[in-house]
Amino acid sequence: MDERVLELYPECGNRHALQGLYLTRLPDSGTSGIAPFIYTNYISSLDGRIALPVPGQHTHQVPAATTNARDWRLFQELAAQADLLITTARYFRQAAKQQAQAELPLGTASEFDDLRDWRKIQGMSPRPDIAIFSASLNIPPDTLEQYRDRKLYVVTGAQADQGRLQRLSDTTGVQIITCGNGHQVEATHLRARLGQLGYHRVYAIGGPAVLHTLISGNALDRLYLTTAHVLLGGTEFDTFVTGPQLAPVRAMPLRTMYLDTSTPGGAGQTMAIYGE
Question: Please, where are the H alpha helices in 97-248?
């Protein structure tokens, strides 16, 4: 990873090593001054696709045309700064069927030993805790076993099935966070709830519905977006935010943008940072 990336904005012309590009200590609180600082990351094609159907499976995954080790490194660097990850029950259902595209960040891969060491130097645990957004509470208990070294939470609405919630808690030891009066998670009070639990930097790695929930609840501070310079097409795909039209729209001003010409081959990619 010695190929450097070109800064396009705000200081056009500077070149930076890719490794360590995103490994800076993020703020402890968000735009409102209330902890925690909440951020997310996606990789997209030029035509806005983040995931496509997997043939023969009822699931979508990041396509090979955009997946690359350089973006994956930056994804892990962002995870290294988090004390909590937000993901979805869907990830664990996919894991149960061996359809999950990758393990949760800062897992066991030796290539990220330096990031786990960095966390230790910062006085952090080896890996972030995990919060699982779920309305259905359909989370295979066995898939949580490998994460018992971390605190595990299920975030759900007040009308979630209380019997299933209790069984899940008794079986797996997860802690329950209720946000919203219905079945679905509402993020309006999520930041305050997570702050009360002592979290400062929360990395949302869920899908487009999770991002919509965070934006609707004014609980997103920053978006990291890698755009691979390829066109995928297709009529069935995921984009990085899905849900009802946002009103008012959420402004996410550009902070920084880099150009990486080394991958995908013959195309390149830009890495942009939006928001606070």
Answer: 113-121, 162-172, 190-196, 208-216
Q: What predicted TM-score, i.e. pTM, was given to this entire model?
A: 0.94
CA 54 – CA 132 distance, rounded (Å): 23
Distance CA 41, CA 63 (A): 16
Beta strands in 129-192 (DSSP E): 129-133, 152-156, 175-178
Locate tokens 């639990």: which residue? Answer: 197
What total number of domains does the chain contain?
Answer: 1
**H or E element, residue 70:** helix 69-80
Whether the CB-CB separation of 153 and 130 falls below 8 Å is answered with: yes
pLDDT digits (tens, 9 = 90+) for 184-242: 888 988 998 999 999 999 999 989 999 999 999 999 999 999 999 999 999 999 999 99
Strands 52-53 and 37-45: unpaired
Sequence letter at residue 188: T
The 3-state DSSP class for residue 173 equals coil
Give the CATH number of the domain where residue 138 resides. 3.40.430.10
Question: Residue 207: beta bridge partners?
Answer: none
Q: Which domain holds residue 92?
A: 4-275
Q: Rg of the chain over CA atoms, in angstroms?
A: 18
